[in-house]
Design a protein that fits this description.
By secondary structure, this protein is mostly helical. The chain has one domain. The protein has helices spanning 20-30, 45-63, 68-77, 82-92, 95-105, and strands spanning 4-6, 9-10. It has a two-stranded antiparallel sheet with strand order 1-2. The longest helix has 19 residues, at 45-63. The radius of gyration is 16 Å and the shape is globular. Mean pLDDT is 84; it is low at 1-5 and 101-106.
């Protein structure tokens, strides 16, 4: 059973994202971030997902000291669908992966 969080919304659907956690992390950490500027262009979807997850965890640990708040923040991140964020980033910046596609077609 899905928990309702508002009229017509459930915990598994939030503003077009998998869940609230995914939407919030994408909005607060990754929104508008150019993968080329970060050195992430050309990564596979799986590798980009892993890099995004690591980046979010590093951002969290940089901004929080040990304790209850960090524990809650880690629990929050464990619900994030980094695959969806990676896919969205690839869709938003297709030029970052254009060279890889062209090489595969040649």
């Amino acid at each position: 059973m899905l928990q309702s969080i508002g009229k017509g919304k459930t915990m598994s659907d939030y503003n077009g994202w998998t869940n609230y956690e995914t939407w919030r992390v994408n909005l607060e950490i990754f929104d508008g971030m150019d993968p080329t500027d970060m050195g992430w262009s050309g990564l596979t979807l799986y590798n980009l997902k892993e890099v995004l997850k690591e980046y979010a965890n590093e951002a969290l640990e940089t901004g929080c000291s040990e304790g209850l708040a960090l524990d809650y923040a880690r629990a929050f991140l464990s619900s994030v669908d980094f695959y969806s964020i990676a896919r969205s980033m690839m869709d938003a910046y297709p030029e970052a992966w254009a060279d890889e596609t062209e090489e595969e077609e040649a």
